Amino acid sequence: MRLLVTGGAGFIGSNFILYWLKKYPEDKVVNLDKLTYAGNLENLKSIEKNPNYEFVHGDICNPQLVNSLTSKTDVIIHFAAESHVDRSIMDPAPFIKTNIEGTYVLLEAALKNKVSRFHHVSTDEVFGALPLNSKELFDAKTPYAPRSPYSASKASSDHLVRAYHTTYNLPITISNCSNNFGPLQFPEKLIPLTITNILEGKKVPVYGDGLYVRDWLYVEDHCRAIDLILKKGKLGRTYLIGGLTEDIPNIEVIKKILKKMNQDESLIEYVKDRPGHDRRYAIDWSESERELGYHPTYSFDEYLEKTIDWYIENKSWWQSIKTGKYLEYYDKQYNR
Ligand code: NAD
Ligand code: TYD
After folding, report:
1. Nearest alpha carbon, ligand 1 atom 42
2. Residue 114: how many CB atoms within 10 A of its CB?
3. Buried-state track 194-215, b at ≥16 Cβ within 10 A, e below 16
C-alpha cells in the first residue's frame, strides 16, 4: 500500500510513520510536511534511509504538489495542521489557511485521483466544553460547538471532509481524539512543557484555577486506533478515540509529574487564564470499541513516567527547540 501522510514531521504524524513502517515494512510512506516551527525531521532520523520512506518538503495548500503526490497514493492520512490553541488565539490566520484551505486542497486531489481512503485526523475540541463535575461524555452524536480559532478551524475541516463523502462519495473516515501525550511532542503543550521546564529549573505555568480537565491518550494508542480505522472503519464514519484517564484536572497532572521527578510544588506558578478556556473534555470511545475493537491499553501513570524518561534521555531534542523563536513565543505567551 502507498500512503501519503501529511504533517508527518510533527508529534503524532512522526509517531504514526514510525509505528506504520515497523508494523508494515512493505508499505511505502510519503511524508508531506511544510516544516513549520512544529515540524522536526530529527523525529524520523531512524528511518530517513529506509527505501520505503520518502520526505517531501512542501505545503498542503499547494494544489500542484498535492495533486502530483496524490496521483501515486492509495491512502491519505491527514495530520498536517496548526495545532496549538494558544497560538490560534494570538494569530488565527495560519489556522484558517492550513486547517481549512489545506484540507480542501487535499480533498480535491483525493477525489481527482480516486484514492481508496482519505482519513482525517481531528480533535475532540470540535465539540466544545463539558461542565465540570458531570458524567457527560462526547460521542459521535455530540453537536459541534467549537470555541477557539483552532477548534473552529478543525470543525470546519471535519465538515468539509464529511461533505465530500456525502456529495461526491469520497471514501473518507474521521477520528476525533483527545489530548495525546508521549515522546516527540513539541514543548508548547502542557505535558512536555511541564517536564522540560522542570528539567530547566523553571516555573511550571498553570492557567486559571488549574481545574480544567482533559482526557489523555498515549500517542501509540492513537496510532493503533488509526490503523484499526483504516482496516475496519466504515466509510463516511467518525470514530471517537480516547485514553484511560478519568477526569483528572491539569493541576493533578502537573503534581504527578513533579512527584515523579522528585520536585516539590513550589515550582507551580498560577498564570493568567486562556481566553475561552474549555473546562472539560471527556470521551466515550465505546462505539469505537464495539465497531473496531479499539480500546486504549497504555495506563496514564505508567506512560507518563515513560514520557518523562524520554524527555530526560533526549535533552538535546528539546533543548534545540527551546531557543530563538520558541523563546520569543514563550515570553509573549507567558508575559515574561
Ligand atoms: P504538530 O503541531 O506537532 O505537527 C503538525 C505538523 O504539520 C508539523 O510537522 C508541521 O510542520 C506540519 N504542517 C503544518 N502546516 C502545514 C502545511 N500547510 N503543509 C504541510 N505540513 C504542515 O501537531 P500534532 O500534535 O502532531 O497533531 C497532528 C494532528 O492531530 C492535527 O491535525 C491535530 O489537530 C490533531 N490532534 C492533535 C491532538 C494532540 O493532542 N496533539 C489531539 C487531537 C487532535
Ligand atoms: P494543551 O496542552 O495546550 O492542549 P489543549 O489546549 O489542546 O487541551 O493544554 C492542555 C491543558 O493544559 C489545557 O486545559 C490548558 C492547560 N495549560 C496550562 O495550564 N498551562 C500551560 O502552560 C499550557 C500550555 C496548557
Report:
1. 179
2. 11
3. bbbbbbeebebbbeeebebbbb
Phi, psi for 95 (deg, rounded to 5): -70, -40
The full set of domains in the chain, from first to last, is 2-185+215-244+281-299 (3.40.50.720)
Report CA(80)–ligand 1 centroid distance (Å): 5
Active site residues: 124-125, 150
- How high is the pLDDT of residue 207? 98
- On whether the CB atoms of residues 230 and 164 are closer than 8 A, the answer is no
The answer, as to whether pTM is greater than 0.90, is yes
The alpha carbon dihedral of 288, 140, 182, 82 has a sign of positive
Quick: pLDDT tens for 177-195.
999 999 999 999 999 999 9
| Mean pLDDT score, 78-101 | 98
Find the radius of gyration of the CA atoms of the chain.
19
- Ligand 2 binding site (Cβ under 6 Å of any ligand atom): 85, 179, 189-190, 193, 205-207, 212, 214, 250, 274
